[in-house]
Amino acid sequence: MQYRVVLRILGLLLMIFSVTMLPPALVGLIYLDHTVMPFLEGFALLLLVGLMIWIPVRHDKHELRLRDGFVVVLLFWVGLGLAGGVPLVLSDYPQLSVIDAIFESVSGLTTTGATVLVGLDELPKGILFYRQQLQWLGGMGIIVLAVAILPMLGIGGMQLYRAETPGPMKDSKLTPRITETAKALWYIYLLLTVACMAAYWLAGMDGFDALMHSFSTVAIGGFSTHDKSIGYFDSPAIEMVAVVFMLISGVNFALHFSFLHHRSLRSYWQDEEFRTFFLSIGVATLLVCLYLFSHSYPHSEDITRTLREGIFHTVSIATTTGFITQDFAAWPAFVPVLLIFLSFVGGCAGSTGGGMKVIRVLILFRQGIRETTKLVHPNATLVVKVDQKPLQAPIIEAVWGFFSAYVFIFVIFMLLLIATGLDQVTAFSAVAAMLNNLGPGLGDVAQNYAQLSVLQKAVLSLAMLMGRLEIFTLLVILTPAFWRR
Length: 485
Fold this sequence. Notes:
By secondary structure, the chain is mainly α. It has 23 helices and 2 strands. It has helices at 3-18, 22-31, 36-54, 66-84, 86-90, 98-109, 125-140, 142-149, 158-164, 178-203, 207-218, 236-249, 253-262, 266-270, 272-294, 303-318, 334-345, 358-376, 393-419, 424-435, 454-468, 472-475, 480-483, and strands at residues 385-386, 389-390. Strands 1-2 form a two-stranded antiparallel ribbon. A hairpin with a 2-residue loop joins strand 1 (385-386) and strand 2 (389-390). The chain is globular and about 65 Å long.
């Protein structure tokens, strides 16, 4: 393990992250909401800490090894969660405890969207901007952004990219050079953000809200500037804009790159994960709407309204965004439970969505079909295929390993929360919402997470990080084999 190299990169990344304190400080200055100093103090503190870490090891310029990349990713995301809470602790309004500030920061950076804040409509604009900015930066992964910058500082980035990017097929790059890959991802990300902002503005949002909600929509984060979330606007046009961009952001960004490069929509429909993603959401939407109609809920007198809310919440939860227009937890029990389970599937690999990813669930389903068929035809040679291409055994084994670890971690976290006093429904939905980077839950966490204890918030913060880094990035560091020479 090259500890000095790891520390050098960590110091550089902290200094880069400190710059993100300046835009919300500028917003606070424009709106005169007394949040300028907390962000300037946060900037100075993080810059100083980054310098103190970097200066003693600044001359150690060696190429990263794979295990170094995992350590950098872990330290950076944990450090980021702590560092991101600094201005929230320093701010006089809202007055947050250290654990609340860390929870809010981790929730933003992991694009989970769970919050401990109430009274969002009255919060200073600087704080609101900062929360949304955290989600936007976390959406594509700050590490991927850093990969585009680090080569200029003499640091190789492929190990960081492989350690951070979600999905079972991490070695496939959009371009031959990893720097160009990171830049391509961020150009697409920025383009979608601008388009989403323009669409929200044309649909009726003011400029500030349009920018803020474009940040959290494209990031599939779910933070809002209002307590009622998208329901604050009560606008079919705004809800449809959100639905469209949540779906777009839930698609593998490699397909967006292919579309922009070849100017053809064919690559979308030829991708089996893409087809499965939209088919599953379409079927779920149909089930939700039919169930709401059959139970005359919530707006039996208004079919259009029921369709609006059924479509919006299904897409929002299925993509793990977490926007709401009303308290869906109060709907007939089948619907919220179905939606929570749908979040386990999540978005496509290579998207900003959470969950286990559609491609993994598709592979698990195909493998299940193969094993069932082999019971009938034990001597048959059966191959699991995706996009008409046979999958190699290591990929299938990795998917099964990920699924097993996901279930195991879920059970452990759920039992921990129940042991701390939460009821089963609240514990189940809270862990599901954190691991899947969803946000809203059921029971006591249907509205927010403010009432949870310090220990419960700490457990859920860890669950958010594990969900964002897809479990193995954290688990691998806990294995003895990782630390052996």
